[in-house]
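Worked Example 4.2. Consider the chain below.
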Amino acid sequence: MAYALGKMVAATVFPPAPTSPYQPVPAKLNLINYAVEERFGLIWTCLAFDPENPVPLPTMPHWDDDGFQQINCPAFEVNGFAGRQVEGFLDVAHFAWIHTSTFADPNNQQVPAYQPQETGFGFVADYWSSVSNYPASSDVQAPEGFEWLRHFEMHLPFTATLTIHFPGDSRLVIMNAASPVSSRVTRMFAPIARNFDLHIPVEDVHAFNLRIFEEDRLMVETQRPESLPLDLTLEAHIPADRSSIAYRRGLKKMGFGEFFLV
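Applying the procedure from the previous section yields the following structure tokens:
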């Protein structure tokens, strides 16, 4: 993965050049090495380590729990800014408009009230609603009146997890790790952990999630401005946008400017 936080940085100095074995090695002749850590099936590295204020790696609920299957979807590339992609992942209002061919009901548009809570790594939000997460083509349905809990954990600036509470003890966890390739290209990584439907081929899981990612892609790639305005007065916000507001406030608190585009 191209972007992550929390590891040490070191430099490798070249040995004396074969053509000048007795010459001191110029100070500029070195390579910078970035120590790495493997977690959730991804490789994380730190590009700007601060030993005075190290930032821990994001966490992913249930990844190491017994009975959970670990799946890594193929990387997915979006021609849009990473901040926009992450904000789309956090948005709870778009289900009825964007994901109607995969899991959502176009007639279930109302967003019940929810309230993000600030944490040391960003924020968390518990969103309760009647929006099902079973595939639209599935014969399985939740009991009438079932309330779905979607638990979001935002690890600023670019990694979020979503834990979906299915009926009973079934849980689905999706990590959205957005890695900026450039200011307008994002490579998204999506580890998944789940403790149900373990008999379904991994390739089918990849295919279903690719359909969802493709539904989101168009929205991210056509948003204007392409950057993310952190001044909340520049756009109109409604109660359904509470996660977006918490995300932008968190980025502003980290020190990013009026417009966020890296």
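The CA atoms of residues 72 and 191 lie 4 Å apart. Helices lie at 82-90, 95-98, 202-222, 242-254. Compare this with Example 4.1 before moving on.
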